[in-house]
Structures are given as C-alpha cells and as structure tokens.
Design a protein that fits this description.
Blueprint (H helix, E strand, L loop, with lengths): L4 H5 L5 E6 L4 E7 L3 H18 L4 H17 L1 H12 L3 H23 L4 E3 L6 E9 L2 E5 L5 H14 L3 E5 L6 H4 L1 H4 L8 E3 L4 H10 L5 E5 L2 H14 L2 E5 L4 E5 L5 H13 L9 E7 L3 H13 L19 H16 L3 E4 L16 E4 L6 H4 L6 E7 L2 H9 L3 E2 L1 E5 L3 H10 L4 E4 L14 E2 L8 H6 L2 E9 L31
Parallel strand pairs: 5-6, 5-8, 6-7, 8-9, 10-11, 10-16, 11-14, 13-14, 16-17
Antiparallel strand pairs: 1-2, 3-4, 4-19, 12-13, 15-18
Helix pairs in contact: 2-9, 3-5, 4-5, 5-6, 11-12
C-alpha cells in the first residue's frame, strides 16, 4: 500500500483494488473519488495557479529540473512499483522513468527560451506583438500502459506554460502515480493535484468541472468521443490522443533478419499494449514467405513471464477483458482463413496472470477485425502486397493515423511514404523511437492534439495579441474605418481588416 492511500480511503467507502496482472493478486487499493473530492482538488489547484503563473519562466524551469532529478533518484523503486501494478518488464519501466525525467528537463530548457513575436503594425505609432499565456487549471487523464511517461508528456509542458494540473491516473495503475505526490512537493502546494477513481466517477467529474479550462486525455476512441461531447457543452478545449492501428511496410530491399526483429519489437513491446504498436504488417510478395519464417522463428524465442523476472521479454496483459478481446480478434481471423504461425493461445505453463503468447498471423486481409480495429495486444498480422502503390493504399485504409513504419533503402520510396501516408509520425528503419523535441500525435480518428516538442507546449497556451498605440493620439470617432479623417468618404464601404 503506497503512502497516502490509507488516509484517502478513510474519506470514502468506495475503493478499487489494484491487481498485479502477473499474479492476479491485489497489491493495493485506492479510493473511487467523485465530484466532491474532485471539486476540492480543483479548488486547491485554482488557488495555486494564481501564484504559479506569476513565477518567471526561469523559476518554473528550475522547479521542473528538480522534478526530473527526483525521478532519476527514485527510478528503481518507482519502476518496480509500476511493474507490480502494470505488468511491464522491469527494465522497460526503468527506461520509462528515464524518458519521463528527460521530458521534464526538455521543457525546463524550452520554457527558458520561450518567446512571443512582434508583428508588423499598421501605424507608425503602434506596437503589435503576440504573447502566450496559460489556460488555468488543466485536467490530465492518463492511461495505464505508460502511466508515468504519458503523465510527463502532459504535466511537463502544462506546468512549463504556467498552468496548474489536476491529474487522474488510470484505476489499473495509480500506485506509482500517487508516489509522485512526494516528488511534486518541490512545486508550490496545489500546483499538481492527484485524484483517483474510475472514468465514470473521478474522470467524468474532472471533465465536467467548470473550473477546469482544458482536458488532456490519452485513451480509447469511445471515451474520447464522450469527453468531446461533454466539453462541447461549455466549449472547453480538449487535447486528445485516441489510439491507433499502426502499419509497418517491409520492402523487397530490406535486410529481412533486421526487419523481422524490428517488427517483433514494434509488435510485442509491452505485450503489444502501446498506442504506436505495429498492428498491421505489409511485406512485398517477393520476400513475404522468407520474412514470415524469420518473424515466427524469432517470436517463438521470446520469453513470456512476470515482469520482475529479468529473463522476461513479454509480460502480461493488463486485465482479463483485454485478453479476451485479443482472443476474439484471433478467432475471427482464423475463422476467415488466417493461419496462426506461432502463439495464438495462453501459455500453458503460466496458470495465473493475464498472459498471451506473442502471435504471428498469416493469410490476413482487411475484412478481419485484427486488421481494422485496435487490437492492443501481442498479435502481429502479416499481409503481402504487390506494388508500393498498393502498400500505401493499405496503410491509409484505416480510421486511425497515429504512426507508420517503413523499412527500405530506397530514398524515393521514403519520400513518397512520408508525403502520402496519413499519420502523425513516420519511422524509417527505426521503429517506435521518441524524441522530446519532435511532436507526437495523429491524424483522423486518432485525434488532433500534439505532445512533445514546441507544438506540445503550445497545446497548453493561449495566444494573445497586444495592440499598443504608444503616442496615445486622439482619434476621430470614425478612425477605424479610414486611413485619415480628411480622406474619409461616407459613401464608400468600410474597409475590411481594420476593425470588427
């Protein structure tokens, strides 16, 4: 039980158990908070925001750097706790802590270089410029697959911009997030508040609260649509990333040994529970069979087990309902003619835990759910293509547009791929890598927001145009509609662009 959870429990009879997906045993519990508790958290954040936004960029940057230092200092213990509640292999969670610290460091540096811009004035006596200001209190709703990293992707730019944040972690992985209360105590009290509970309780209360000016959400398309509908009632800004169905194209000139390992990495990392997981693979027909042999052979060698075991390559899925969805996708594909080359079942040796073997499917097509719907599990369907035009069409044949991968040495194909593929991130010969300085987000149903980079900072800022006449000259009442009073023609139409 993490510190602070017992105290919170006393205030609410509603509790949610936190289950270790590797053992199916409870490792803690959290309060299922509702509108009353969320309201108090928002009130504290509103009070803190007035002071936080008045800090200089340099002062905010120093505090964000301290957050990063504390994350690094406690990375091992935080990673272990995250493995207990989320199942991801420990070494992957250690990496997640490092990436999260890096994000806070990046935005500390970026906010020091923050700038507005001076724009041309329409009169000699005027100065026009644009500044960027925070929204106020941001509601951040974070998923379970990368709870600390995706928290950092929202909190670091939101705080750097001068906002206060009320954070709701996923009910499956809240314990590691609650440990951040002691990390965030280097910030002014109330600048970051954490509430816990289900989406229907704490999540919805946060979205509906009138004191929250912006909702930043990563999660399912279904939940994103509900959030958008609620926020539309008050015209509240949303910033959402709603999943993907990422494609991977392997060209005939690829090194098949390298490409097979790259596809396995992209498909089975975190048991396929990554928004940018490779969920569709298209291989040129001339190398299709050889590629499948290599991919299946490599995938069979991956060790499935408890994330705390250093030998484990692929950990458990987060819960039983998610595993059942994977099984349904595989069963549908087999019924429609697909062939299971490896995996396709629960590991016989693991009696407890939500495990599923890394699975490679051949003979798939776009009539199957596994090629159309977000699978979010360790399943890799592979389909041949004849021409590069056909490959591009198949990649774009999806309601999602988060990311896409290409393996080739042909520069002409690379150029066509990043120009024609409808996705927010394009990886060429280097799948699933991130860069704090590069924007992350998607097209189409994936959502329109961006995280990371300067674009990620702008998501949490409002642009304000300042129009200043420093000579303070008295103007006739008709001034906005004419260059000078003497040349004003009452019969002429009003000039556009001078006033509204």
């Amino acid at each position: 039980m993490v510190q602070g959870v017992l105290a919170a429990k006393k205030k609410s009879a509603r509790v949610i158990p936190v289950i270790n997906p590797a053992t199916e045993e409870a490792v803690g519990e959290i309060p299922d908070q509702g509108a009353e508790e969320v309201g108090r958290a928002v009130a504290r954040a509103q009070k803190a925001w007035d002071g936080w936004r008045k800090n200089t960029a340099h002062e905010r940057a120093k505090m964000l750097e301290e957050v990063a230092r504390r994350i690094k200092e406690r990375s091992q213990s935080l990673a272990r706790l995250l493995t207990l509640e989320g199942g991801k292999p420990l070494r992957e969670n250690v990496d997640e802590m490092g990436w999260s610290a890096s994000c806070f460091e990046y935005y500390a540096g970026l906010i020091r270089a923050e700038r507005g811009r001076v724009i041309p004035s329409i009169e000699a006596s005027q100065l026009n410029f644009v500044v960027h200001e925070p929204y106020g209190v941001v509601g951040a709703i974070v998923p379970w697959n990368y709870p600390i990293l995706l928290m950092a992707w929202k909190l670091a730019p939101a705080l750097a911009a001068g906002n206060a944040v009320v954070l709701k972690p996923a009910e499956q992985t809240p314990l590691s997030t609650l440990e951040f209360r002691s990390i965030f105590d280097c910030l002014p009290k109330g600048t970051v508040e954490i509430v816990t509970g289900r989406g229907e309780t704490a999540g919805e209360a946060l979205v509906r609260h009138p004191g929250v000016s912006l909702i930043a959400f990563t999660g399912s398309l279904e939940t994103g649509r509900r959030i958008a509908k609620i926020c539309s009632e008050s015209v509240k800004k949303t910033h959402m990333e709603l999943g993907g169905k990422d494609a991977f194209v392997v060209c005939e000139d690829s090194d098949l040994d390298v490409a097979a390992k790259a596809v396995a990495w992209a498909a089975f990392l975190n048991a396929g529970q990554v928004c940018t997981s490779t969920e569709r693979v298209y291989v040129h027909r001339s190398v299709h069979d050889k590629f499948l042999e290599r991919l299946a052979a490599f995938s069979r060698k991956l060790i499935v087990g408890d994330g705390l075991d250093p030998k484990t390559d692929v950990g458990p899925m987060i819960g039983e309902s998610y595993r059942r969805k994977i099984e349904a996708h595989v069963a549908d594909a087999v019924k429609r003619g697909a062939k299971v080359l490896c995996g396709g079942r629960r590991p016989a040796a693991l009696k407890r835990g939500f495990y599923y073997e890394p699975t490679v499917l051949a003979g798939v097509d776009h009539s199957m759910a596994v090629m159309r719907e977000e699978t979010f599990g360790p399943v890799c369907p592979v389909m041949p293509y004849k021409t590069f035009d056909e490959a591009l069409a198949l990649v774009n044949d999806s309601p999602y547009g988060l990311g896409a991968n290409l393996y080739t040495h042909d520069a002409r194909k690379v150029k066509r791929f990043f120009e024609e593929v409808q996705a927010g991130t394009i990886w060429v010969n280097d799948p699933l890598t991130d860069n704090d300085a590069g924007p992350f987000g998607g097209f189409k149903a994936t959502g329109g927001g961006r995280e990371l980079g300067e674009e990620g900072l702008r998501e949490f800022q409002q642009a304000k145009h300042v129009h200043w006449d420093f000579e303070q000259q008295a103007k006739p009442w008709w001034y906005p509609y004419a260059p000078t009073a003497k040349s004003y023609d009452y019969s002429a139409p009003k000039k556009s662009g001078r006033a509204r």
